């Protein structure tokens, strides 16, 4: 679990005294690591009774080209700046370079939050 409350360190590195103990609503969920594969979606509840659609696996991307938006097939993850191991494990995050049927594209959406992969074709 990831703690999403106030940090116990100041920007300068000094100590910040906690106001109270950690609360359950300050905990985040496990990160959804979207992989390349047969499409698999999962709906999770979020604040206010809303739902988020998470992409567990996907094999297609909406790629923006000069002619418009084209639905392309994802072949592999070429590079991922978030974590070098993600490229080896074919995990798609925002900012990752993916090899598609249209060419190399950079992911602009957050598949673990949006449930879809949107990308822009690289030159």
Précis, in short:
By secondary structure, the chain is mainly beta. It has two helices and nine strands.
Overall description:
Residues 1-36, 102-123 are annotated as: Disordered. One of its GO terms (cellular component) is ribonucleoprotein complex. The chain has one domain: Structural Genomics Hypothetical 15.5 Kd Protein In mrcA-pckA Intergenic Region, Chain A. The N and C termini lie far apart (38 Å). The chain has two helices and nine strands; from the N terminus they run E-E-E-E-E-H-E-E-E-H-E. The chain is mainly beta and 123 residues long. The strands form two sheets. The protein has a five-stranded mixed beta barrel. It has helices at 84-88, 111-114; strands spanning 34-36, 40-45, 51-58, 60-64, 69-79, 91-92, 97-100, 104-107, 118-121.
Order of helices and strands: EEEEEHEEEHE
> CATH class, please?
Alpha Beta
Taken from the alpha-carbon principal axes, the silhouette is: elongated
What percentage of amino acids are in beta strands? Answer: 35-45%
CATH topology annotation: Structural Genomics Hypothetical 15.5 Kd Protein In mrcA-pckA Intergenic Region, Chain A
Query: Ends: how far apart?
Result: 38 Å
Biased composition (Polar residues): 102-111
Organism: Halomarina salina
GO cellular component, one term: ribosome
Region (Disordered): 1-36, 102-123
What key phrases describe this protein's structure?
four-stranded mixed beta sheet, 2 helices, elongated, mainly beta, 123 residues, five-stranded mixed β-barrel, Structural Genomics Hypothetical 15.5 Kd Protein In mrcA-pckA Intergenic Region, Chain A
